[in-house]
Specification:
elongated, 737 residues, single chain, Jelly Rolls, 25% helix, 11 helices, six-stranded mixed sheet, NGX6/PGAP6/MYMK, EGF, alpha+beta, cell membrane, disulfide bond, 33 strands
């Protein structure tokens, strides 16, 4: 009977792509590949808008099994001690065609989570005002098609199973379950017979494909000789897929006998039972983020030494580890017995770091080792460690290459000359992770038999290593129900954890930027003085409010060390935006010279509407342009009314136009041009300071002169209240006649 295949199709909604400046700009897709999948096909669809602003674009798509891809499109540096392996990626070009469809095939993929990340090239860095320009939409959608074998034969360990490969076009798929504590696996093909009575020729593939690196074991068998393949440390408690392909004639079938056998590893433990009372004891080790202060425990003099013959009977020594969940993508691993781990040369010491919940792959796994120098009597002895996924490395003393059957681990070592070591695994794949430690002596293991080292192990999972440092912000990102973290850097710093200072601003440059952006608001003082001198006290109050909150908002908004926040950042930003728009609103209404009661009603009503619109969309261009245009309409209507009533141009004085209005309007237009079209991330601190200066100066020029019948500020005149009332009556009579 032929094999039964079932096809399944998985789709996710399209996402709008962004230009890349940090990991949050990459759009992530997560798919779950089912067990017994023999073929995986990605359908990648990219499209763009049809407007003139849309140009040819190259989209980069990254693939990874088990965790989000670790990418570096900007070529920045990673933190020290971080392990980085290049991601598998392809490029999709959108040229003349509006849409591009690409297929990516993966045969015998590993079951579990697969991730795709897509992004556009590096961001230009220009600050675009929302509403002034319409960016081209670039959309990307990933769909997954899988072909699954429903009746895959199961190979039982130690039992020979005859199978038939029908033809080269139909390879044979079988699977075998790898038990826990399997130190090795032996796979053997024997008694091969072809239908044409010719020599057997077949290709055997053990394992599944994982990206970016695949460790499939492939062997070609020819002739009638038995064919075998040995695996060291196969993945524990997982199904191992085996594919056999015939390399013979098109119509020829072959029959073969398969046999899989495992070598068991007998684990030993430092204690015969778990001391559950120690679960409630407080952890004396350092908190996450303070690995440099990790302490070590000295070797107890009263501790009984182990029997060497007992140690030889075990191939590893288990250390009980408790997983303590602290927060989202935040886990601490606590050793029950003590922070220090005894390490000897006879068998590796093993620690299990559980990262198989499906929600742990979006952070960074940090493993720190500290050797207690007093516990090692041999000066030249070294403790070699290896961090690996799926299965531990059990032969550190023999190979020291830190690799298992299908995974290349991460090596570590500590010695009396270098007692500290740290490893950072960025986005660790979802699996059981293992830390293996063993004592190595350069002159042979016999020298180390009576020696035991004490190593303090500190391991934790954190969203961002070192919380992105002083020049970065750790952001929790989300794709549907999956959470992962990324660093957003500032002050010119870059890199995965904001540790790359290639383009970093110096402290002097940061102080200069803060001073420019804050002190440039003092240019509102002339505008405030002019407003007070001309009796525009409400306008002067608005300008004072704007100057105050703009100053302290920019003092709080600065990256790096030159920062001062007098209140919540969001409150400062809202007050700054509100003051800026209301200042423009009251200035234009003041220029319109409408009746005072109408002017103040418009002041209050406009301020309330502006406050509402800013709450809806703080960065929308119409929050500023709308009040400006409406106030300009009121001003032009009032000026036309005054001109028709007086039968000459309003304002009537040419000096008013030449020395006040035209310079003020010119400064305002230059300010708007700088604000809308010239600001970038690099020049923001001086272009935005220019905006502050130009707007404040334009206000001082545009404010109208005081009423003709109002005297300048003179305190002696302010004491004669009756005279002021009489003068007001005369003003009204004069206006009527």
């Amino acid at each position: 009977a032929g094999s039964l295949y079932v096809s399944e199709y998985f789709s996710q909604s399209a996402q709008k792509l962004s230009f890349y400046s940090w990991y949050g700009n990459a759009k992530l897709f997560q798919f779950r590949v089912p067990e017994d999948t023999v073929l995986l096909r990605w359908l990648l669809q990219a499209s763009r808008g049809k407007g003139p602003e849309c140009t040819n674009m190259e989209i980069t798509v990254h693939f990874r099994y088990g965790a989000p891809p670790v990418i570096n499109p900007l070529g920045t540096r990673f933190p020290a001690n971080a392990t980085v392996r290049p991601s598998y990626n392809i490029s999709i070009t959108l040229s003349s065609a509006v849409q591009n469809t690409t297929f990516v095939n993966v045969t015998t993929p590993a079951a579990g989570d697969w991730f795709i990340a897509a992004h556009l090239p590096e961001a230009a860095g220009r600050i675009e005002v929302k509403g002034f320009s319409t960016p081209c939409p670039y959309m990307f959608q990933a769909d997954m098609f899988v072909l699954r074998l429903t009746d895959m034969p199961v190979l039982e360990p130690g039992v020979a199973m005859p199978q038939t490969v029908v033809s080269p076009a139909k390879p044979l798929h079988v699977k075998v379950f790898v038990p826990k504590h399997a130190a090795g696996m032996q796979f053997e093909l024997r008694s091969c017979v072809t239908s044409e009575q010719k020599a057997c020729a077949m290709r055997v593939v053990l394992g599944s494909i994982t990206l970016p690196q695949s460790f499939q074991r492939i062997v070609t068998c020819t002739g009638s000789v038995n064919c075998s393949l040995a695996l060291d440390s196969p993945p524990w408690e997982k199904w191992l897929q085996i594919m056999v392909e015939s390399l013979g004639a098109a119509n020829a079938s072959l029959s073969v006998e398969m046999l899989a056998s495992f070598t068991a590893c007998r684990p030993g433990s430092t204690s015969s039972f778990l001391n559950f009372s120690s679960l409630n004891q407080s952890q004396t080790g350092p908190r996450p983020g303070s690995t440099g202060a990790a302490g070590s425990s000295a070797l107890s003099t009263g501790e009984a030494s182990r029997n060497a013959s007992d140690q030889r009977s075990f191939c590893l020594q288990n250390q009980p580890v408790v997983r303590e969940d602290l927060d989202v993508v935040s886990v601490r691993y606590r050793l029950l017995n003590s922070p220090s781990v005894p390490v000897n040369s006879l068998s590796p010491t093993l620690l299990l770091l559980n990262l198989n919940t499906g929600m742990d792959s979006g952070g960074s796994l940090v493993v720190s080792l500290l050797l207690n120098k007093t516990s090692v009597s041999l000066a030249n002895a070294t403790v070699v460690a290896c961090v690996s996924a799926a299965s531990p490395v059990l032969s550190l003393n023999a190979t020291q290459n830190c690799s298992t059957a299908f995974f290349q681990g991460y090596p570590l070592s500590v010695s009396t000359s270098s007692a500290e070591a740290m490893l950072i695994v960025l986005y660790p794949q979802t699996d059981d992770w293992f830390l293996s430690l063993q004592l190595i002596c350069p002159k042979g293991q016999g020298e180390c038999n009576a020696v035991e080292a004490k190593v303090t192990v500190f391991a934790y999972l954190t969203p961002c290593f070192n919380d992105c440092g002083p020049y970065g912000q750790c952001s929790l990102l989300r794709r549907h129900g999956y959470l992962y973290a990324g660093c957003s850097c500032k002050a010119g710093w870059g890199g995965w954890s904001c540790t790359d200072d290639t383009k970093a601003q110096s402290v002097g440059a940061q102080n200069l930027a803060t001073l420019l952006l804050t002190l440039s608001n003092l240019m509102f003082l002339p505008a405030i003085a002019v407003a007070v001198y001309r009796y525009y006290l409400v306008e002067a109050s608005v300008y004072t409010y704007t100057m105050f909150f703009s100053t302290f908002y920019h003092a709080c908004d600065q990256p790096g060390v030159a920062v001062m926040c007098i209140m919540d950042y969001d409150t400062l930003q809202y007050c700054d935006f509100l003051g800026s728009v209301v200042s423009i609103w009251v200035t234009i209404l003041c220029m319109s010279r409408v009746k005072k009661i109408l002017k103040y009603v418009l002041f209050i009503l406009g301020t309330l509407l502006i406050a509402m619109s800013l709450q809806l969309d703080r960065r929308g261009v119409w929050n500023m342009m709308g009040p400006c245009l409406f106030a300009l309409v009121i001003m032009i209507a009032a000026w036309v009314y005054h001109g028709v009533k007086r039968r000459h141009c309003y304002p009537s004085s040419w000096k008013r136009w030449v020395f006040y209005l035209l310079p003020g309007i010119t400064l305002a237009f230059i300010a708007i041009s700088v604000y809308a079209f010239m600001e970038t991330n690099e020049n923001y601190y001086y272009t935005h300071s220019i905006w502050h200066v130009l707007v404040a100066c334009s206000v001082a020029f545009l404010l109208p002169p005081r009423d003709k019948h109002k005297k300048p500020w003179a305190w002696s005149q302010k004491l004669t209240c009756r005279y002021q009332i009489c003068q007001n009556d005369r003003e009204e009579l004069y206006a009527v006649t």
